[in-house]
Design goal:
Radius of gyration: 26 Å
Structural class: mainly alpha
Number of helices: 5
Largest sheet: 2 strands, antiparallel
Helix content: 25-40%
Shape: elongated
């Protein structure tokens, strides 16, 4: 399938998606994917968690991913805010979600994504990506031909050392 590209004139007013209001949220569906599936929806009313703690952690996750500018799924966080903040809006509408959708916005996924972002952003002074492998580390360390004790780091001298390899 061929991709379509549109040339724009920077002098003309913007016609981006940001100028349009966010689509309305159907609060009867999963608030994250807005899809009707066979998977049951998770609702905080039916759990034993303290009141609203699920909304707070979901809001935190959504805002972290939004700040990273890389959402795990297509989601406009602005449509989840009626003006009082995302968490308050979720509580007001008794928001529900699929478990699999919610897991995409947890702390573990955020940590993995932020590590990947920082690793892709790291570059050496030559402009090439930094390599972190065992074989590359071996080339950076000074190679010693004299055996040393790995406990005290002193040369073997006349003492008998045992050899070990991994």
């Amino acid at each position: 399938m061929a991709k379509r590209h549109i040339l724009i004139d920077p002098a003309q007013p913007s016609t981006s998606n940001q100028s349009r209001p966010p689509p309305r949220t159907n609060w009867e569906l999963c608030i994250l994917c807005q899809a009707e599936t066979d998977e049951p929806l998770q609702c905080l009313r039916s759990t034993m968690k303290p009141s609203g703690s699920g909304y707070a952690s979901l809001t935190e996750g959504l805002l972290q991913f939004k700040g990273l500018r890389h959402m795990p799924m297509e989601l406009n966080v602005n449509r989840l805010d009626d003006g009082d903040g995302v968490e308050a809006t979720l509580r007001t509408h008794s928001a529900q979600w699929h478990k699999k959708c919610r897991l995409k916005f947890n702390k573990k996924m955020f940590d993995q994504q932020s590590r990947a972002e920082s690793a892709s952003g790291q570059q050496s002074s030559t402009g090439t990506p930094t390599v972190h492998t065992r074989s590359a580390a071996a080339h950076r360390l000074p190679q010693s031909t004299e055996p040393i004790c790995f406990f005290c780091k002193k040369p073997a001298g006349t003492a008998d050392l045992h050899e070990a390899a991994t």
